[in-house]
Amino acid sequence: CPSCPQDCTCVWTDWIDVSYPDGSDRNGGDNETFENIQKNDTSWECAKVENISCRAEKFPDIPIENLGQVVQCDVNTGLICNNKDQPIGGIIPMPVCLNYQISVCCLPNRPECFTPTPTGTTSATTPYTTSTVSSSTVSTTTAMPTST
Predict the structure, then answer these.
(1) Domain extents in the chain
(2) Which of 8, 16, 85, 139 has the highest CB neighbour count under 10 A?
């Protein structure tokens, strides 16, 4: 049933790791961005990211906000970790990003999963969550749709 609503639910990917931080490059880092993933894996298709999960490869059971690194993990971009933003100390003694992995919940790339919003009517959009992780705080914002 190609037009059934359950066919438009997001599906989680396996853990994705297309970038590895170079410890000798202060301007380097680990960039598991959607743009980077698409460059490295042309078969990767994700019409819309509905949710994201990020973890450190060597510390998969520790939430990234507890690792003492400055990391951005969000549904709009993916994961970005810059070596230059890292504090000295923490879980590793050098200011270098850990190697991170992401898993995303993707909406299928089918027209029936995306309804265009006609002009002058109420828009119905799925809420999305953006998380920004730093060494001491995690701020999460949930954007809810607005009616016009």
Answers:
(1) 18-107
(2) 16
